[in-house]
Amino acid sequence: MKLQQILSSLQKLHPKEIDLSLDRVQRLCKRLGNPQDNLKYISVVGTNGKYSTIASIRAILKEANINCNIYTSPHIQKINERFVYNDEEISDENLSKLLAEVEDINAGDPITYFEILTAAYFYNAKNFKNNINLIESGLFHRFDACSVIKSNLASVITAIGLDHLDWLPKNKKTIDQIIFEKTSSLLTSKIVVSKQSSSENLSKIVNSIKKNSSKKIIFSYDFNYSLNENGFFYYEDKYGGLKLPLPNLEGEYQLSNISTAIATIRNIEEINISDQNIKNGIKKIKNIARFSEITEGKLKYLVKKNKIYIDGSHNPLGASVLSKHLDSLKCNKHIILGMMLNKNHLEYVGYFKDKISSLTVVDIPNQPAAISGEDLMKKLKNIKNINYKKSIKEAIESIDLKDNDIIIITGSLYLAGEVLNLN
Asked: Model pTM?
């Protein structure tokens, strides 16, 4: 209860959820003694694949006995997921103490929820100075609270696509502006660019970072991967090729995130890992709600022998990637969908329109910024076999499953969290 009270108090410090500027977090960090300085970072920016890339780096470094601190957003089930030190989530008690101390030092000054959480992460990270900090820069990197750091080991650019357009001016709701916001102010160190959804996007990213004097490691130019039908994939860069086992993550698209993680680690001289560390690490990646199968629990019981997955994709780029993976599965697919109000619902669902056996829309519990299932159904009225159910449990029970059919619950990371809590 104490933790929830503190979190509620922090949410009242600023009238806006997001306010794109750095003055507030810089002011608080200065009061905290600028704890973000003199730490080791790998920064990850982009639209999709950030969490998976961080999870892949984390798993490989763990195999090499290299300790990590990790800061990601949003959390799926509980806020502790955002605060990982020495590869362990912070406890409720320690998080309460940390946030209470930072709140006292902030002294009631206006600051957004994300900004004060970020400052608190840095404040505790200084207690683990030898660790590598893996930090996910959210929304638009240029004015993201994570960008207050002054140096890093590398910046990673994952796949960039259209999302969060409501935070951009009317005349700048474009992929060009998003690329500019995410990549134009990267630090000078090394920049690793992941596989993109199109060669055009890749060219725009390369153009955006061309004046940055960092060493650039770019997918298809400096590293690559290929999938082999015999149960392995092949990674290659200037350091040589690696024949690797398939990871413990479903979807060929995850090979892109894993390859980006490998490229990042192999290009940082301060990090010493072996090929065996990589081979072992990619079999142990912990990735929550990224096409993850639910193998036990209350919801699994409802589908018996059928498979049920959760996937946190919530934008057109994520839908495109998920759709391609579903194409590779030879079975009937049923989607249960819940989304936030500010998403492009029609374009998202358009990727699945003629590929699924049914679509059931639901409300997302405890999320006032979500679109109601009934309103979502009205927007998607031209989709075949669409239904509305108030709850996730009702949605699952309403689907007439045949042998080998699968269910995918998708559309929002917030929905994924509710599903996992319900399960």
From this structure: 0.94
